[in-house]
C-alpha cells in the first residue's frame, strides 16, 4: 500500500483552498466529471472558455457538423432517466441537436451552478509546500484547488495555415472551429475552402448546395466513406430505448467503443468474390463499419489494406464523372483507414457540379492570400468568403495553450520536449494532483469518445472517493510507471499502419514549426485492454502511483 500518512499532513490539510477540485472544460468529459465529483460531495468548480456547455459541440458550428458515431451510442449511459427522456432524431445527429443534448444534460443535473463560463484558464501552477494547484484565468482571477482535472479535449487548439497574407483577406473568413453563431448564407457567394479532412468533407457537401461558386483547395486527398444517415423512426426509437443495455455492452466489448468491431477473418484468407461482396456490404452500411468492422488485419497488414484501398478507389472513380478529377481525389500516399476516415454524404458527387472546382495543391500550391482571395502558382482565385478547415494542434495542443507548471515549477512543455510521457494517459510524473481526461496516450483519443470518457471519469471518481475517505492530499505517478506505460503505448502504435502515415494521429502539423516528425500520441491497444489496465491499477491500490 502506497498510502502515506506522513507528518505535516494535518497542517497541509487545514489550509484554506477555494476548491477540492477544479475541472477545465465543460464538454462531454468535463460535464460528466463534474456530475460525479459533486455526487461525492466535493467542492468543484469548472472553468469553461466558451459561453455555453458542449466543448466540441459548442465550438464546431460549421454547416454539416455531425456525429460519425451512431447517435444512440454517443449519449451518456450513466442515467436511465436521461436515456428515457432523450430522443435522438437522426442516426448521426447534427451539431445543433448535439449541443441541445449537452445543454439538456447540464440543465437536468443542475450542472451550470458549478460552471464559470467565458473563463479561459491561462496558467496553472502546483505548489509543493502546501500541495495545491493555483489556477489563473485570462481576466487575472486566481483560484486554488487541491486537485486539477483537465477535460480540454484532443481537438481544441485550431491551427490556421502558415500561408502568407492570411490576415490580408478583406472578405469574410474563419476557421471551422470558430464558426460564428449567426447563420451564414452562401447563396450566390464565391467560397474557398482550404482542407479536405473530416471537417472539410462535412462542410463542403453543405456549402456546395447553395454557393455561387465553391473552390476546394486540396493538398492531400483522404479516403472517405458513405455515412448513410437518416432519421430515426418512431418504431426504432422504441427499440433503441429498450436496448441501451445491449448497445452499451456491445460498445464496451469493441476495440474502439463502437457498435462496429473487426471481422475475425483476414482479408486474404477469403476468395476475391467473397472479399468484394463483403466490401460492397460495408460500403452500403451506415457509419464506421467499413473502418472499424472490416477484416481484422486491415489496419495492420499492408497487403490486406491494399485490397480495401483499391475497392474504395474504384468507388471514387465510379462516382466522379471526370476521370482526371477522380484521379486527384484518390489518395496515393497512404492506405484506407490509416488516417481518420471522413464520413460523407454525396461528397464525391459534389465534384460533378458545375459550381464546384477542385484545386490540387500538389500541382499548383498556394503562393499567398491577398485582399481578394487565394493565389496559387498558376491562378488568382477571388472570393467573398474563405473557410480554413485546416485542422488542429491535436491531442497536446490544448495543453500547450495553458502554461502548466508542476512540481518545482517545471513546465509541461519542458517535460514533453522529447516526446509525450504519461501514466495511463491520465497522469504525468512531476505533476501531482493533476489528471488528464482523454489525455495523450489514453484510449479515449482513439475511441467513440463518450464511451471511453465515461470510463476515464468513473475511474477518476473512484480515485476521488479514496481521496475523500482517506483524506489524501497528494497523488503522483512514479517515473517507473510512466516509463512502462509510455513504452507500452509506443509498442501498441508500432504494429498499426497509421503510425507510418502523416496525420494528426501521429502529431504531424505542417502549420506548426518543428512538427514534421511523427510521434506517438494515441493509445492503439484498444479500449477493453486499456480499461482492464486502469482497473488493475486501481485494484492493486493504485500501483504506479504514490498516494499521500
Ligand atoms: P485534419 O483532418 O487535420 O484536416 C486538415 C486539412 O487541412 C487537411 O486536408 C490538410 O491537408 C489541410 N491543410 C492544413 N494546413 C494546410 C495548409 N497550410 N495548406 C493547405 N492545406 C492545409 O482536420 P479536420 O478536418 O478538422 O479533422 C480533425 C479531426 O476532427 C478529424 O480527424 C476527426 O477526428 C475530428 N472530426 C470529427 C468529426 C465527427 O466526429 N463527426 C467531424 C469532423 C472532424 P494535409 O492532409 O495535406 O495536411
Describe this structure in words.
With 548 residues, the chain is α/β, with parallel strands linked by helices. Helix content is 33%, strand content 16%. It is built from 17 helices and 20 strands. The strands form 5 sheets. Strands 1, 2, 3, 4, 5, 6, 17 and 18 form an 8-stranded mixed sheet that branches. β4 (121-127) and β5 form a beta hairpin. The chain is globular and about 70 Å long.
Oligomer: single chain
- Main sheet specs: 8 strands, mixed
Number of strands: 20
Average pLDDT taken over every residue: 96
- Separation, N- and C-terminal Cα atoms: 11 Å
Percent strand equals 15-25%
In percent, how helical is the residue content? Answer: 25-40%
**Gyration radius, rounded:** 24 Å
List cofactors, ions and other ligands. Answer: NADP nicotinamide-adenine-dinucleotide phosphate
Number of helices: 17
Structural key phrases:
548 residues; alpha/beta; eight-stranded mixed beta sheet; 17 helices; globular; disordered N terminus; binds NADP nicotinamide-adenine-dinucleotide phosphate
